[in-house]
Amino acid sequence: MSARTARTARTAGTARTRMLAAATFAVAALTLTACNNGEGVRDEGASADTGSSSVTPSPKGSAGSSKGAGQTDPVGSTSGGDKGTQGSTGGATNSSNPQGSSGSSGSSGPSGSTDSDSSALTPCTTVRTTATVVSRPLNHLLLTVTNTGSKNCDLTGYPAVRFGEAQSVPPVFEDSKPQAVTTLAPGESGYAGVLLSAADGSGSNGYTAKSLTFHLKGSERVQKPSLPAKGVYVDDSIHVTYWQSTMDSALAW
Fold first, then answer.
1. Are residues 49 and 134 in the same domain?
2. pLDDT tens, 183-200?
3. Is residue 110 reached through a cis peptide bond, with omega within 30 degrees of 0 on the bond before it?
4. Is residue 103 part of a domain?
5. pLDDT tens sequence across 111-122
6. Domain count, the chain
7. How far apart are the first and last CA of the chain?
8. Which among 22, 88, 110, 122 is most buried, taking Cβ atoms within 10 Å?
9. Per-residue pLDDT tens digits for 74-107
């Protein structure tokens, strides 16, 4: 081979080497550019699948957000609104409960006045009465009323007594009023005490009475129990008690 031919061959080899280097550099540059973009070298088919899967969850996310807000789900919105309205209505009903006001009126109903309504009581009309002077306390008379009838009867109020020719009845010890009406079963007795005169002699307008009469409330019959033959001394200190169920209660005044 001549020297010229050798130079030509070296020149051609150098050119191919340079072209190969240039191609290699271009490929490397492309590879570096793709990596810098965060995409890398990918297969187009895989890229399409990946894009599809990344889009698919997106509608679900939107639907979940809508249901959470309670705006786009007509079922949830309607039921929630109805329940809320019903709860409010129930509260209004309770606050104006007619049964509550009925209970209030019941507490002030006629049952409270029935206890003091004399029309609901049975007056004692078939009785036996006695008047007994007691030794203790001094200057006291004990009136006894016994039910001789066959049914229960009620002693109400206090005895309106009159000694001798007295024109008025004596006052009552108001504090002696019992908490309940004295009811007598057949054969039972009720009692009332009479303070005839002041024990210390401080009373005035005194006189000796030999007769006694009194009425029982609800009865027109006049009761005339006997007094001692010598009579009893009475002055303007005279008072009576309400009818009591025991002798001790009647003589405590």
1. no
2. 999 999 999 999 999 989
3. no
4. no
5. 333 344 556 899
6. 2
7. 168
8. 122
9. 444 444 444 444 444 444 444 444 444 444 333 3
Of the candidates 172, 161, 182, 181, the residue with the CA atom closest to the CA atom of residue 234: 161
Which of 55, 74, 89 is where one domain is finished? 55
Domain assignment of residue 143, yes or no: yes
Both 51 and 122 in one domain: the answer is no
The alpha-helical segments, DSSP class H, found in the chain are: 3-36, 44-55, 57-69, 74-95, 98-107, 111-114, 247-250
Task: Give the range of the structural domain holding residue 14, as residue numbers without chain letter.
Answer: 3-55
> What is the number of other CB atoms lying within 10 angstroms of the CB of residue 21?
10
29 & 128 share domain: no
Do 51 and 137 lie in one domain? The reply is no
214-230 exposure pattern, b = at least 16 Cβ within 10 A, e = fewer? bbbbbeeeebebebeee
pLDDT bin (cut points 50, 70, 90) of residue 138 is very high
Q: What is the pLDDT of residue 6?
A: 52
Residue 50 lies in a domain: yes
Residue 242 to residue 246: CA distance in whole angstroms: 11
Q: DSSP for 95-123?
A: HT-HHHHHHHHHHTSTHHHHTT-GGGS-B
Q: Quick one: 138 and 245 in the same domain?
A: yes
Please tell me the distance from the alpha carbon of residue 198 to that of residue 239, in angstroms, as a whole number: 10
Q: Does one domain contain both 45 and 135?
A: no
Query: For 37-97, where are the alpha helices, taking DSSP H only?
Result: 44-55, 57-69, 74-95
CB 241 within 8 A of CB 193: yes
- Among residues 176, 181, 177, the alpha carbon closest in space to that of 121 is found at 181
Q: Return phi, psi of residue 248, to 5°.
A: -60, -40
Sheet-wide strand order for 140-147: 127-134, 140-147, 189-195, 239-240
